[in-house]
Design brief:
single chain; 267 residues; alpha/beta; 3-stranded antiparallel β-sheet; 4 helices
Length: 267
């Protein structure tokens, strides 16, 4: 560094202008700072552009949109939308609870921004933010609906043990080699899973689940914040399941108000 300074002084004393010097010898001026600031803004915008480039967004005609005021709140609102010629609201806005520690970027049909500070991890008490496809609905008893629906038993487990080969999979414990020490019962005495929907976060029931990135994310019944699911009253849950149409490729869009506004540009 000292030699560069001496060389620069010699160039100036010989009559060479600052603009003629190699760029590495110049001290940053206002123009340089403006360029750097501009490039930072471009990169920040680019990070959000990546949101719609991770995977092919299906031609959806149904959206479940969950908004929160910030990343740490466990409270939010849910609004359904459907597309005919244009998007329009369906039903009333529902007050929901989600992760007790708020939100973190999850793994779905989006890319996580390069500057993201909040990332969903196993056991962090956060609900996933992003765009997610919806898999089957489920419950404790048969429910006559058009949307795919599974009746689960107490022996059906969702595996949340990161050391298991069955991580983030819903399995019949009577039909698999149990290598897990931690799981969720898909049916138990409380009514939390009496009705629900499987959210395709982190490739649930698929081969590509990332260990430790969060598992067993559902929309279901509950009155208080959760370990990462989005919850509401039973009547509200049933109404949503009745409304869902698999042919319309329904998606969940979830995040802070600012994030959701950006994600909605994908539609």
């Amino acid at each position: 560094m000292t030699s560069l300074v001496i060389m620069a002084k010699k160039m100036v004393s010989s009559g060479m202008s600052i603009e003629m010097m190699p760029y590495s010898m110049r001290r940053p001026n206002d123009l340089d700072r403006r360029i750097i600031t501009h490039m930072k803004n471009i990169l920040l915008g680019f990070s959000f552009t990546l949101l719609s480039l991770h995977a092919q967004i299906p031609d959806t005609k149904q959206l479940i949109v969950v908004n929160t005021k910030n990343w740490s709140t466990p409270n939010g609102t849910l609004q359904r939308y459907e597309k005919t010629n244009a998007w329009h609201k369906v039903g009333k806005t529902i007050n929901i609870k989600l992760g007790r520690n708020g939100l973190g970027w999850g793994i779905g049909l989006h890319s996580i921004p390069i500057n993201a500070k909040h990332i969903k991890k196993e056991g962090d008490g956060k609900a996933p933010a992003g765009i997610f496809s919806l898999k089957q609905a489920f419950g404790y008893n048969p429910f006559v609906v058009e949307y795919p629906y599974e009746v689960y038993k107490s022996t059906d487990h969702c595996v949340d043990d990161v050391n298991s080969k069955l991580y983030n999979k819903i399995v019949d414990s009577k039909k698999v080699n149990i290598d897990y020490k931690s799981k969720e019962h898909m049916r138990f005495p409380k009514d939390y899973y009496k009705y629900g929907i499987v959210v395709n976060h982190n490739h649930i029931d698929e081969a590509d689940a990332k260990k430790g990135a969060g598992s067993c994310i559902f929309i279901h019944i509950k009155k208080v914040p959760t370990a990462g699911c989005t919850v509401m009253r039973e009547d509200e849950m049933k109404e949503i399941i009745k409304w869902l149409d698999a042919d319309k490729a329904p998606l969940l869009v979830q995040g802070t108000i600012e994030v959701v506004n950006k994600l909605m540009n994908s539609f």
